[in-house]
Amino acid sequence: MRGRAMRVPRIVVAAPSSNAGKTSITTGLIAALTARGLTVSPHKVGPDYIDPGYHGLAAGRPGRNLDKWLVGDDRITPLFLHGSRGADVAVVEGVMGLFDGAAHASVEPGYGSTAQVAAHLQAPVVLVVDAASQARSVAALVHGFATFDPTVRIGGVVLNRVGSDRHEAILREALGTAGVPVLGAVRRIAELQTPSRHLGLVPAAERSAEAVRTGRALGAVVESSIDLDAVLRLARTAPDLTGEPWDPAAEVTPVEGRPVVAVAGGPAFTFGYAETAELLTAAGAEVVTVDPLRDDALPEGTRALVVGGGFPEVHASALSANVGLRTAIADLAARGGPIAAECAGLLYLSQELDGEPMCGVLPTTTAMHPKLTLGYRAAVALTDSVLAPAGTRVRGHEFHRTTAGPAAGATPAWQWNADGPEGFVTGNVHASYLHLNWAGSPGMATRFVAAAARVPQEVGHAHR
C-alpha cells in the first residue's frame, strides 16, 4: 500500500466464540485507558452498530467499524488510520469467534473475520476467554488459537467470569505452559451485565446516563483486574502501518449550494456509520440532526433526509404521536425532497408499524416478526434512484425482526437473491432493509447531495 509509515499502538480484542464478554472487556479497557488520560480510538470488526455506541461513550469519540465486506479490503487500513487520528492507542473489538467470517459462497472461508482484520492491521490479539466452566482445559484452548494461523499473533489472554481465587490460580497455572501471558482475570459480576432485547444489546443512546455509569463501572473493573501497563506494552509492539488516512473529500465530488441534509437520530434511530455524515459534508451538504421522538418539524431549510437503522418498533407509539414531523416528512417526499431510508427508516416511512400510523410515504405495512433476518448481502440496484443508477452493485447487510408487506414496490430498490426484489424507489425516496456503509460506495453521497441541491429552496422552508 502506498503512503507513509504511521505509528499507531493498537490491540484487537477477540474471543474463541460469541458471548465470551468481548464487548464488556473492550468497553472497560477503553474506559480505563481514557481515565488514565490517554486518547483512545475505538473500533469494531463487522457491521454491528450497537457495540461502537458503548465504545464511543467510553472513549469520548466515535466508535468506528472495520468491515471488509462492506467497504472492501483496500479501505480497512485507511479507515483505521482516519479513525485513529490523534489517538495514543487504538482498541479494536472483534466479531463472533476469532476466525469466524462471512458465510458467503463468493468469498474464501473466514473472509472479514477478526483474524483477517488483525492480520491486515498487524495488530496483536488479546484473547478473552470465558473461563466460567473451565479449568486446565483452558491451556489447550489457548494453545490451539495461538498456533492455528501463523499470521495472527495472540499477545495475551484475559480470563473472564472467573469464579474464585482458587479458580484463577488453576487457570494461571495451566496457562503457564501455553506460551501466552495472562494479562488479567475478571470475576463474575452480574450487575455489570448490559441489558439485551430482540436484536442484541440495548443501544447506549437509549440508556444515556445509565450507559455512561455502566461504562465507568466496567472501566473500574478492568483497572483493578487487568494489567493495563502490560496491555499498553503489547499495543506498542504493533509495527508502523503504511498508508494514508481515509479522506472523505477525496471520495466525492463537491456539490454547490450547501443543501441542508437532515439525518435522523435520537433513541429510535441509533444505527449509523460516522462516515456517512462525513461523506455528505464533503459532498457539499450541511448535515443536521433530527430526532423523530422529540422534534415536531424538520430543521429549517431541510432539502433531504437520511433515516438509518434503529428500534422504531420499540418507540412506535411515540413516533406515531409526533404527527407534525410525520406530516413534514410526507410533504418533503411529495415535493421531491430526496429521502434515503434503511431498515428502521423503511418502517418509519411505511403506512403503519404494528398498527401504529407512520409517515405513509411507502405503499407497505410493517410489523414485528419472530424470525431474525441477518446476514451479508451482495445486491444490485434494480431502479435508478437518488443513491445509485440501475445496475449498480453494492455490498450490505440485513439485521431485523420485522417484515414489510409487500416487500417491494412497482419500482424496487434491490435484488440480492432468488426470492425476488426488495425495497422501494418512489420518486426521490429510496427505502430498503439493506444497510450500507457509504464508505464502500462513496458515489452515493455525491449523487444524494446533488439531488438535494436540485430541490427548490422553498421545499426546505415548508416546515419550520
Automatic annotation (TrEMBL):
UniProt EC number: 6.3.5.9
GO BP terms, alphabetized: cobalamin biosynthetic process
Active site: C343 (nucleophile)
Keyword terms of this UniProt record: ATP-binding, Cobalamin biosynthesis, Glutamine amidotransferase, Ligase, Magnesium, Nucleotide-binding
PROSITE patterns: GATASE_COBBQ
Record-annotated CobB/CobQ-like glutamine amidotransferase domain positions: 261-440
Enzyme class: ligase
Pathway annotation from the record: Cofactor biosynthesis; adenosylcobalamin biosynthesis; cob(II)yrinate a,c-diamide from precorrin-2 (aerobic route): step 9/10
Every CobQ/CobB/MinD/ParA nucleotide binding domain range: 11-199
Functional summary from the UniProt entry: Catalyzes the ATP-dependent amidation of the two carboxylate groups at positions a and c of hydrogenobyrinate, using either L-glutamine or ammonia as the nitrogen source.
Domain notes: Comprises of two domains. The C-terminal domain contains the binding site for glutamine and catalyzes the hydrolysis of this substrate to glutamate and ammonia. The N-terminal domain is anticipated to bind ATP and hydrogenobyrinate and catalyzes the ultimate synthesis of the diamide product. The ammonia produced via the glutaminase domain is probably translocated to the adjacent domain via a molecular tunnel, where it reacts with an activated intermediate.
Family membership: Belongs to the CobB/CbiA family.
Protein name, UniProt field: Hydrogenobyrinate a,c-diamide synthase
Organism this protein belongs to: Modestobacter caceresii
Gene from which the chain derives: cobB
